[in-house]
What does this fold into?
Amino acid sequence: MVRNTNRHFKFDWITIILFLLLAGFGWINIISASHIGEEINYFDFSQPYGKQLIFIFLTFALIVLLLAIDAKFYERFSSVIYIISMLSLMGLFVFGKNVNGATSWYGIGGMTIQPSEFAKTATALAVAKYVSDLNTNIKTFKDQIQVFIIIIIPAVLVLLQNDTGSTIVYGAFFFVLYREGLPKFYLNIGISLIILSILSLKFGGLITTFISGILIFGYYFFNRRKSNLLVFILAFLLSAGVSFGIKFFYNSVLQPHQKDRISLWLRLEKDPEKLERMKKTFAYNLNESEKAIGSGGFTGRGFMEGTRTTGKFVPEQHTDYIFSTVGEEWGFLGSSLVVIVFVLLLLRILHLAELQKSQFSRVYGYSVAAIIFVHFFINIGMVMGLIPTIGIPLPLFSYGGSGLWAFTILIFIFIKLDSNRINEW
Amino acid sequence: MRQFLLYIVIVLAGLLFISRLFYLQIYNPNSNNLFEDNAIRKVYDYPKRGFVFDRNGELLVSNQPSYDVMVIPREVKPLDTLEFCSLLKIDKERFKEKYKEAYNYSPRLPYVFIPQLSKADYAVLQEKMRKFEGFYIQKRSLRHYQTSIGANVLGSISEVRNRDMENDPYYKSGDLIGREGVEASYEEILRGVKGIKFIQKDRFNRNIGPYKDGIYDTIPVQGKDITITIDAELQAYGELLMRNKRGGIVALEPSSGEILAMIAAPSFDPNLLVGRERSKNFTKLFRDSIAKPLFNRSLQGVYEPGSPFKLMNALIALQEGVMTPNEIVTCNGGYHYGGRVMGCHCAYGTRNNMVGGIMHSCNAYFATAYRKILDKNGNASEGIDKWSSHAKSFGLGNFLGYDLQIGQKGRIPDRDYYKYVYPNTFYSTYTISNAIGQGEVATTPIQLANMIAAIANRGYFYTPHIIKKIEGQDIPEKYTTPKHTTIDKENFEPVIEGMLQVYKQGTASALQVPDIEICGKTGTVENFTTIDSTRTQLTDHSIFVAFAPKDNPKIALAVFVENGYWGSRFAGRVASLLIEKHLKGEITRTDLEDWLLRHTLEHEYEKPYSGEPFGINRNTTLEQVSPEEYKELKEELAKLNNQNING
Ligand SMILES: [Zn+2]
It folds into this structure.
């Protein structure tokens, strides 16, 4: 088993330090967001901050375990891990516990475990395994379909459990596949879809179709070399279809609460009474969290001094809205620092991924960065009102054992793979 | 390129977030202000508003509790509006209207929903209040007037308006602020400083405890009591005498500039402007465009002073050395100049020296004096500027600087004033009306009273003021520093002698008061109004100025009674009685008193609105009040006298 006695020194300490910084600072903010009254007993395990402390300690045990397992294990058993993970997701339909409208939890004793958190890691391993297979060529449609199936299964399973946020996270694999050679066509389609959807929801299908028509045919006339008019006509018809189709999708497929979120984000709702109602329900969180962040000013109000944090104005502040505590208590300095540390961690993982000689490790590393990035982007974007409200935790920061452990596993498998880089050949 | 997509996306996301943080935390101004922070409940502790006492220590204004229904719109839960409205005695429309108002002010800040409940309503509502979330009752202190007089002096308090809050951020919605009178002038002293407690709320709006252990909390500073210069007894007496008349009276103490009484008729009971009825009553008073009870005639009424201004011309003539006291001016029933004549009621060939000129109010005498002043150096332009600056040294033609917030400048013309009418040549005869206090000269009652005080003092005055004492604080120095006129002391004696003779044998000889040497001067001023765009003359104003006693004067006053016909007819009577009241404390000339109570000028005031042709001056009649009203007035007088005996 032991091939290199010095392997402890091959772990990427930069990643580990950034990881610890985030988890530690996350805990500090969970204290602020969840403490009641002036007295704080850090070891009061009935309180979220006490529990989180246990989770963090258990994390260290988990890390030791993850690093002790042979790197090859992860690659070899990736399919098994994936299958087990999918079974655990399906099992929720039978044994799941309903919390806040989502059946994404197993209750074991006093604890709850959220298998969807771990399914991301399992899917990352499976995708890495499949893409790195010598027989796989991601440029072929057949393999694209296959890898799509690997990704879509957990995505659909969590969607069925009403966990929209987690479903969207599986979109992260797009970045991975694109890096590994997925045709540019998909990127263009993806970006066009997003732009078309937003435009047609905001300005209506007719205007959007008109604009896209001008752009598409304008492009055709100014770039006449080897272009086929038929392709452009098709593209135009498609975009028209999407422009009108999205309205139908929005009106008939989306559930009312999802529609509300989008309409608030795009400021579609004009009825003042309806807006008022929104402000009292889900938009309340957003409003309060923006105000909490705003009240932090440049340097923040200081640890446990935030009035909105202390007054528990932001519901779920220790989970999805934890970043608003950072904003209120640590101000522009502290919150920018958190953003920067996240960006550094992501860039570091990406950088390491590019250094991998094994494609499996590279794809996996890329998946880690992409998954964390999507969480980071959606969560902080939502808390600051930049994107529609989607419930999704901030990695390493938000309260919760499942989340913390799932991200620990996700990251430390990669650290282990990376440490093995030297020994690959 | 493929490798870089995610790198770029990550860095862009980081930049986007930092810019958003910059926007929310630094660019956005409302961050970090405890007052803007809806997580912090601000509880105000209103101090007691200072009391107001009159110069003799009689309590005029104190406080009474009042209860406001407050609303915080965001915290309102669905409620039984029908029950709520019936408890508040309002209809549903009003409810909706008020709610919208509150919401527009701010969904999260308290707003006065229904101000000043009656005690009975409060008792009923208090028990049921818990049913109506988002509404609560706030106790506040209202003014309690111990008297029905002096509304124009005392002023009132009312809720702050948006403008007040913009001008001074101290004020928050629902705070009270002094309007008019001493309430406005001494607002900050009377008000004190409200205390504030910052209380941490949770999102269910429950109090968790003091914010940061209360280190930002402040305790209220009590409002200070003030004593004003008004003599409530004199004020009440003056207001009673002015019943059924219109006009303004200001009585000053020459040795200090203290305002002893300031009467604006018609007056109203200050209690009308307290409590829930305030706005209704205010509107009523405000809309009365005929009697204009809110128009403070004693400070804002600008009248031509008429004959009292002759005193000023006499003083200037002496000071400029253009006339001596013994110089004789012969009056041939008027003053003839350039083929025109300014009439006078002297018999043909009357020879007047200065005392005689004043005593008989001879127009010819003062026209001569005025022309001599202006033509002293052969240049009327220079002369009128000299004349103007002497008059202005008495506080005429500009704001006096007293401590009440309303007033008028009046007018003392100078050469510059005439530059459009007479751009080139300018002769003294052009402005001859100024000689007799008409033409372009205009004063307010308080200015004229101040002029008389300066004469009484033989050359100086103290800026008139209403404040006598502030608890633990000196009154402003400007009220205790004498201001000197440009007239030398010795030049006052002939003028004062003339004023004394007005009482002894002149136009006011019928108004003498036993044992008091009063110096006075009558005035009768033409006045006009516009009826159907025609300039129409009304009965003359009755004006009287006086001070007493002649030596060591205690009171100087100016009385204007609109359309009272001639000076001694109404104004002179009022002046004599006020002087006697102030100096003796009781009235011996009850005949004058009775005459004033019995007679009314309301018929004069109705004439321009009657739509009928009407007679003035010589063709007017003297009318009496109804026997019932006379009886009422007598009863009020008796009550007043009783109070004095008891007090
Ligand atoms: Zn004459």
About this structure: Chain B has 21 helices and 24 strands. The interface with chain A takes residues 2-3, 5-7, 9-11, 13-14, 16-18, 20-22, 24-26, 28, 30-32, 37-40, 200-203, 208, 211-212 of chain B (CB under 8 Å).
